[in-house]
Amino acid sequence: MTEFYSQHTKYYVSVDCIIFGFDGSKIEVLIGRRQMDPGRSEFSLYGGFVRPDESVDDAARRVVNDLTGMSNLYMRQVGAYGDVDRDPGGRVISVAYCALINVRDYDDRLRQKYGLVWITLDDMPRLYSDHNRMINDAIMQIRRRINTQPLSFNLLPEYFTLTQLQHVYEAVLNKKIDKRNFRKRIKQIDLIKQTNRIDHTMSRSGARLYRFDREKYEKDPTFKL
Fold first, then answer.
1. Mean pLDDT per 10-residue section of the chain, whose length is 225 residues
2. Which residues are within 8 A (CB) of 29 and not within 5 positions of it... i.e. 6 or more apart?
3. Which residues does 152 contact at the CB level (< 8 Å), separation at least 6?
4. DSSP H or E run through 77
5. Overall pTM surpassing 0.85 (yes/no)
6. How far, in Å, CA of 164 to CA of 161, rounded?
């Protein structure tokens, strides 16, 4: 491989991972302070350089697994970021990925190990390089897809109330949703199954729990809210 392309300049390729979490009311992003120069101690996304023996997708999965301890998460490539001066450390082209998790599923010991914090979109500080742009691009993509892809269920526990589901949509879309119309539409989706379980955490009478039928969706990946 080294005998080819010798006349061309070599560049670094990295991945930056946007971990979106839902805390029950708001969408948050996992960020931390950089442990290396340039930009040491600045807030940034968590990422890493692509290794010689892995694909870009594999690099992103490795980073997300290191960060969360989870595998088989929903992950999607957001885009490539290659402005000439985007990284003061050198010519670095970064491919951004986003993943969706429920905050309660995340092992807080990993957050402490890596010195990370959950920050809401409204409270996001100025991040290193173009990481704010990556987050904005990612949430805009999710907003465009949330009504045609079952993204919201990656942010919820396996069993959830309709109120929790509505809160996810409101948090992602950043707007209030009419409760009656929302529930009417939800009950028309046969992929959302009512269970016999009751959640008593919010009231004595409790609320019915639902689940998303992933097996049925995998057989017929059609979803529309």
1. 81 97 93 94 96 96 92 94 94 97 90 93 96 98 96 95 95 96 93 91 81 93 88
2. 18, 19, 20, 21, 45, 118, 119, 120, 121, 124, 135
3. 146, 165, 168, 169, 172
4. strand 74-81
5. yes
6. 5
